[in-house]
Amino acid sequence: MQHYLNYVDGEWRDASRQLTVMNPGTGEAYATVAQAGIEDADAAMAAARRCVDSGALSDVRPAQRTTWMLKAAEAIRAIADEGGLVGCRENGKSLNDARDEFIEAARYFEYYAGMADKIEGISVPLGKDYVDFTQYVPFGVSVQIVPWNFPVSICARSLAPALAAGNAVVIKSPEISPLAMTLLIKAVEEAGFPKGAVNLLCGKGSEVGSHLVQHADTNQIVFTGSVPTGQRILRDAAERATPSVMELGGKSAAIALADVDLDTLLASVKVGIFFNAGQVCSAMSRLLVQRSRYDEVKAAVVALAESLTIGQGEGNPDLTPVVSEDQQQRVLAMIEQARSEGATVLTGGVAPDLSGYFVAPTVIEATPDMSIAREEVFGPVLVIMPFDDEDHAVALANGTDFGLVAGVFGEGLNQTLRVANRLRGGQVFINEWFAGGIETPFGGVGLSGFGREKGQEAIYSYVQTRNIGIRLRQG
Asked: Which of 101, 104, 110, 247 is the catalytic position?
């Protein structure tokens, strides 16, 4: 069984403890990883602080960071096949999707390489006796806590802009699926970044994650994950007023209007809720259908769910396992809770008779007050409900504490855009769920968090503004 290490101060290091990583497709142990402790966390923070204080990242000409970033991107692309197989086996996702994470990670480094030398301040006119300007300066040490659902791409999503802006980074990988991230960091290592610029730790969130968040040398926190964990981090961050970027959960709704094209909608339902077994913060977890089309759409969605192939990720099926037995049992428990509240399970709702941690593609008819229609499931579970008119649809879509993404499906541009402008969320899709890419800003409102990742806007989450005002001497 292969054993993976942590990366601290330019060196790969083992630990006295280790964690076992399971293959969700088989339910069997796959590999082990060194379990970092407090001593490792302190060493990583000290290395990052030395890198920051030396100016090795921030004092160089920004074009040098561009060079490092592009070298990293090239190295990441070179290991996409190898890394994809590891990601597939530790996470359960399809082999194609796991490989795509590495390609997306490379794109993040390419994209932010192009911004590294374009983080420009402004000149402020104060009259002839003054010269005043602003600078964007890196925070310093960025602590980044990465989730288990897309560990490679989400790691790159925050690591790339942080490095482009001149920050040193300490990454806490998810203990459930930390392995492919080690390959990502090995590729980044090849780019030649200064020692201490990138550090990777796998440890328990309650131990290592909490220690990093509260550490005196932490200048910024980036977290993607559940609402309860994000709230705990924010309470700790408040002690030192540490700036944070929070990308939390969602209960996102798609609105299907009366003139919706059924094929267009079904294509988005398939990817929106069943991609990665529904373990996506921006999943289409609710489908609201205009009553005149409700029975037709409901029948088509159920037929779609029942047509999906289910299996281990290496075979690239439509539906793969969820990441762990705990996650499987949590999803099944929420389905049972829905049944007890009176919801109708139209299809699925069970664990298929397969080895591994599978949940059958599930469609549930529910009312807005039921917990299944309000709480994030993080599994292949779609809630479907009818609505009467635009106002009703918007009220239902906006009727949770979340506000990550939303969607509108219909043929009339005026109506779809009118409805989109009323939806509460950081990103709204029209006629294609997940429309966009690394170029489009992403983040939420409400319990879905704050701050933005991706796109040009994200780079400004990794810098702070300094104003310099000069009084000129009259000669």
From this structure: 247
Burial readout 322-356 (b: 16 or more C-beta within 10 A, e: otherwise): bbbeebbeebbebbeebeeeebebbbbbebeeeeb
Domain-embedded: residue 44: yes
Judge if 180 and 306 occupy the same domain.
Answer: no
Number of structural domains, the chain? 2
* Structural domain of 402: 253-430
Please state the rounded mean pLDDT for residues 315-326. Answer: 98
Count Cα neighbours of 33 within 13 Å in the Cβ-side half-sphere: 26
Phi, psi for 330 (deg, rounded to 5): -65, -45
Instruction: Give the pLDDT score at 474.
Output: 82
Whether pTM exceeds 0.70: yes
Residue found by looking up tokens 């994809």 in the block: 84
Residue-wise pLDDT tens digits, 158-182: 999 999 999 999 999 999 999 999 9
- The enclosing H or E element of 98 equals helix 95-113
Q: Give yes or no: residues 275 and 216 share one domain.
A: no
- In this predicted structure, the answer to whether residue 475 has a pLDDT above a threshold of 80 is no
Active-site residue, 247 included: yes
Shared domain check, 245 and 215: yes
